[in-house]
Amino acid sequence: MKRTRFVFSGSGGQGVITAGIILAEAAVIHEGMNATQTQSYGAAARGGSTRSDVIISNQPIYYPEVNQANILVCLTQESYINYSSIIRPGGLVLTDSRFVKTTKKVDARQIEVPMYDMVMEKIKKPIVFNICMLGALLGITEFVKPTSLMEVIKATVPKDFIELNQNAFELGMELGALYNE
Amino acid sequence: MTDNINSNSVNDNNGIKPNDINNGIKANNIKFIQGNEACVEGALYAGVDFFAGYPITPSTEIAELLSKRLPEKGGKFIQMEDEIASMCAIIGASLTGHKVMTATSGPGFSLKQEALGYACMAEIPCVIVNVQRGGPSTGNPTHVSQGDINQARWGTHGDHAIIALTASNHQDVFGVTVDAFNLAETYRTPVILLFDEVVGHMREKLIIPEKGELPIVDRLRTSVRKGVDYHPYLPREDGRLPMSDFGAEHRYNVTGLFHDMWGFPSNNPQVVRELLHHLVDKIENNVHTITRYKEHYLEGAEYILISYGSSARSAIHMAKNRRERGEKVGVLELQSIWPFPEAMVREKCANAKAVIVVEMNMGQVMREVKACVDNPSKVFLANRIDNKLINPTNIKTLLRIIQGRGV
């Protein structure tokens, strides 16, 4: 991967920051890439808009923030309104169909996936919504190997929750694969 | 195109060769962590075994992580009642023979200044981390600034010298943290680590060097035997002062007053003059050994950007893009701010058409650069003071104006 700039956005508590960290960590630890992760950081502990910028590259990364994203993930309507303008022409916008109503104003491939609804139907735990989202992202394009990402999840989450996360990840992969070009 | 990196720094591994970086490196040694965590890893590598602090954003992760890691290795972590007490606690612990550190940000750094001066005067090795945020006062806790450059130099009163180091990426955060402990021991002085919110909170790769890869300076202890008179402030021929763990074998006095070789207060004019000279000269006369910097695309550069900390990342990003377009733009990245590397900066900038200082304050390093280059009128400032990270476009805009190309 030459240089890919991701923005993960949503509402505090949805796990968008964690998702960004997991993806970047997988690229660094298991695939020998460089990555940076930054986040907008306010005083609120949960709720409100959150955003996590991730850059993955096989070259050194200097400026760590994303002005134009190749990949934009929006898990709330507010984040879609705020950030859809930063997508690079030809980029990819991934949204959750339950929370985001997209417009046609964006010059990018827009993919709406019922991630939240499927997580609630099959797994019944909203806590793994973000991992399902990562699965969907990798199902659409394999930015890092799914095994790399699972390795990071295994090292990050408590032992009793690994299976739950694995299921969510695989569910997401299946959903994303429908849009794999 | 080369990204030349020349430095006195012991650590130049910038995580720059991604494709072979994981080969031969133990998986546990590769981390994807925040800059504050990289600082902790560096401190532990250097042998820190005492930390006293009062957590404050954006430095909190340093205290948080050390509260877990220090007890695991038999060290001590104390959360004190405030920043003043934290500073006093590390001074006391250092005197008893420990490698010590505290971490804070703007308002806490202000509170530490009085005791910092005491550590300068009493020549007590210690490391103070200041992860800079917006100021003055409580300012902007969660956002970035580089406004404490001059506070690090002159925050405490009276003539004195100080060492302050900084870094723009996690490998260097680790390296300068190890360096800070080494310099503190070598010169018996407080050393300030001036990081900033972006470097502190950003996550990126860190490769932890194997034991022995980076040199470690241990406490120089006196060879004077127990029961024999020990002079705590009598320098050896090389200027260094061997220490004796306070409360152990020798009895001696420590004071913030001007003092003689016994450590007892003195207002003898000769003692006062010689001590002040000693305090300043031991650092200022060694500026060449203390100076740490990196060059990025600097060879033949007509336009030189001088930067440090997170703003250097934007400067390097911009210079790389300009070079790819054939423009001769390079970056001189400072890793030691105090003592200011005047001679080095003057030499590097001698042939530049313009020198642009890139920083997130109202020109604190720019003034130092203007004071040391041959032609101060060719020095410009590219800054941001809205507590947002300066971006490559901000710098490019100024560069185009200087080049007479308009915006």
Commentary on this structure:
The complex is a heterodimer of chains A (181) and B (407). Chain A contains six helices and six strands; from the N terminus they run βαβββαββαααα. With 181 residues, chain A is of the alpha/beta class. In chain A, α2 links the parallel β4 and β5. In chain A, α1 packs across α5 and α4 runs parallel beside α6. The model of chain A has no long low-confidence stretch (mean pLDDT 93). By secondary structure, chain B is of the alpha/beta class. Chain B has two domains: 190 residues, Thiamin diphosphate (ThDP)-binding fold, Pyr/PP domains (Rossmann fold, 3-Layer(aba) Sandwich); 108 residues, Rossmann fold (3-Layer(aba) Sandwich). In chain B, 37% of the residues lie in helices and 19% in strands. In chain B, the strands form three sheets. In chain B, strands 2, 3, 4, 5, 6, 7, 8 and 13 form an eight-stranded mixed beta sheet that branches. A five-stranded mixed beta sheet of chain B has the order 10-12-11-14-15, with helices on both faces. Chain B has a two-stranded antiparallel ribbon with strand order 1-9. The longest helix of chain B has 18 residues. Chain B is globular. Chain B starts with 17 loop residues before the first helix and ends in a 5-residue tail after the last helix. The N terminus of chain B is likely disordered. Chains A and B meet through α1 and β2 of A and α1, β6, β9 and α11 of B. β2 of chain A pairs antiparallel with β9 of chain B, so a sheet runs across the interface.
